[in-house]
Design goal:
With about 190 residues, the protein is of the alpha/beta class. It has seven helices and eight strands, in the order βαβααβαβαββαβαβ. The strands form two sheets. Strands 1, 2, 3, 6, 7 and 8 form a six-stranded parallel β-sheet that branches. It has a two-stranded parallel ribbon with strand order 4-5.
């Protein structure tokens, strides 16, 4: 079974990632916040959103961040045929052009993993902010990240309207904490 990447061997780096964008009004705020902290990140974008908002996608790339494929339409791999799932991923890549892939919900079958690993680096995470959960407070989302931060961590936030309330609070505080720890925010390096 190919390796899924859950963390990165890097003594000084933390890898912030943002799933589901680009999202008008949210992506611009994330980019401005990252810029304020001189932080780089990786955006796992949906093909359908890149198709709808190509200029916003271009802003992510032009700001020096990495992009990764998060499927075209946010599909769960479980319960989908190998062919249909990989078609959705490959169709997304017609818009995204990346060697990085993250399966939505981490729901991917062994067969899908084997096939996609031939074409992509499969990037997971070791810290999930759960910013999408509206029952959680912004402070809880922050603790979900900062209580576990360490060199090499891959952190998931969401570039979505649903997650914005929590992420808007947690992201700047996370960036402050990373700075306090003497770490640097980097894009996924492969």
């Amino acid at each position: 079974m190919p390796d899924l990447i859950w963390e990165i061997d890097d003594a000084e780096g933390v890898f912030l990632t943002f799933d589901d964008g680009p999202t008008p009004g949210v992506t611009e705020w994330i980019l401005a916040t990252l810029d304020k902290y001189d932080a780089k990140a990786t955006f796992f974008v949906l093909g359908k959103n890149v198709e709808m908002y190509p200029d916003l996608f271009r802003r992510i790339v032009d700001a020096g961040h990495r992009v990764g494929n998060h499927t075209y339409s946010h599909q769960k791999g479980w319960g989908m045929s190998l062919e249909r799932y990989t078609e959705d991923v490959d169709f997304a890549n017609d818009f995204i052009h990346s060697n990085l892939f993250r399966p939505p919900y981490a729901r991917i079958t062994p067969a899908q993993t084997r096939l996609l690993a031939q074409r992509y680096e499969l990037v997971m995470w070791d810290i999930l902010s759960r910013d999408y959960n509206r029952r959680l407070s912004p402070r809880t989302c922050l603790k979900n990240v900062t209580n576990y931060l360490e060199p090499g961590s891959i952190v998931v936030f969401h570039d979505s309207v649903k997650a914005f309330r929590n992420m808007r609070y947690a992201l700047p505080h996370t960036l402050e904490r990373i700075r306090q720890l003497g770490l640097k925010c980097k894009s996924i390096p492969f």
